[in-house]
């Protein structure tokens, strides 16, 4: 009997931390909504069609014809890389981010900004030819890349030869981006612990512009953008169903 008790106790001790870890991962959209059904962020239309915060991932794609308004990024970039482009609001925010980084002694370089459907198709085909199915964890199929939105950018630094590698998060430049990008409206889109939700491996170099209000809230909540957008949908549904006051 004593042995059975001991076995059960050990099993319990082993299971408690596992249960705790799962519960601590991150809240669901429903839990976020119950905590705060009206967060102080701009929600001017249905989040599914809001061109600034729209979710683009493997389940939510863009048509091949989608081409945003673009401007050139007049910023330092990886040597040998052509001038990149982004949507004007994202380009201006990135300029402010680069200037603030430089003021702190941090020198960043743009590696990749806007990518058209056709460019993404070529990149994806090349990666799949090189790596087979594992390429799906690192490269988005055409129409499923945030780069086609003109709101995502890959940044790196000279000390790692501007490579797009997880090691970027260990550099002072990568740590600066992680600590400050939300102030300029950008979020780190792909974290290691979110791989099951995002479908991609960790990418500390890939930042997505969503505007400063949303970026601060996403970062403070520390949830995958997929969960955040589900939360925004609940907020929007509740807001749009409220009776209009006269
Ligand atoms: Zn990227």
Commentary on this structure:
With 246 residues, this protein is an alpha+beta fold. The protein has a domain at 63-222: Muramoyl-pentapeptide Carboxypeptidase, domain 2 (2-Layer Sandwich), CATH 3.30.1380.10. The protein contains 8 helices and 6 strands, in the order H-H-E-E-H-E-H-E-H-E-H-E-H-H. The strands form 2 sheets. A 4-stranded antiparallel sheet has the order 3-4-6-5. Strands 1-2 form a two-stranded antiparallel sheet. Helix 2 (29-35) crosses helix 8 (225-240). The longest helix is centred in the N-terminal third of the chain and has 23 residues, at 2-24. The termini are far apart. Mean pLDDT is 91; it is low at 10-14 and 16-21.
List the helices and strands and how they pair.
Elements: H1 2-24, H2 29-35, E1 71-72, E2 85-86, H3 88-103, E3 109-112, H4 117-131, E4 152-156, H5 172-180, E5 186-190, H6 195-198, E6 203-209, H7 212-221, H8 225-240
Antiparallel strand pairs: 1-2, 3-4, 4-6, 5-6
Helix pairs in contact: 2-8
Bound molecules: zinc ion (ZN).
Zinc ion (ZN) binds next to strand 4.
């Amino acid at each position: 009997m004593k042995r059975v008790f001991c076995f059960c106790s050990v099993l319990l001790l082993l299971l408690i931390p596992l249960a705790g870890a799962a519960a601590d991962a991150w809240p669901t959209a429903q839990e976020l909504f119950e905590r705060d059904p009206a967060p102080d962020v701009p929600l001017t239309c249905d989040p599914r069609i809001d061109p600034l915060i729209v979710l683009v991932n493997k389940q939510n794609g863009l048509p091949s014809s989608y081409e945003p308004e673009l401007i050139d990024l007049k910023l330092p970039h990886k040597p040998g890389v052509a001038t990149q482009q982004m949507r004007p609001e994202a380009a201006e925010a990135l300029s402010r981010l680069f200037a603030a980084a430089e003021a702190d002694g941090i020198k960043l370089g743009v590696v990749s900004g806007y990518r058209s459907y056709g460019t993404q198709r070529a990149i994806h085909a090349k990666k799949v030819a090189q790596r087979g199915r594992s390429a799906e964890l690192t490269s988005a199929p055409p129409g499923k890349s945030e780069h086609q939105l003109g709101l995502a950018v890959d940044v790196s630094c000279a000390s790692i030869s501007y490579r797009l590698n997880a090691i970027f998060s260990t550099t002072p430049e990568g740590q600066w981006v992680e600590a400050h990008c939300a102030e300029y409206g950008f979020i780190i889109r792909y974290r290691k612990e979110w791989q099951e939700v995002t479908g991609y491996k960790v990418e500390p170099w890939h930042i997505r512009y969503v505007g400063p209000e949303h970026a601060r809230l996403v970062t403070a909540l520390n949830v995958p953008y997929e969960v955040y957008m589900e939360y925004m949908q609940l907020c929007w549904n509740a807001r749009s169903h409220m009776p209009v006051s006269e």
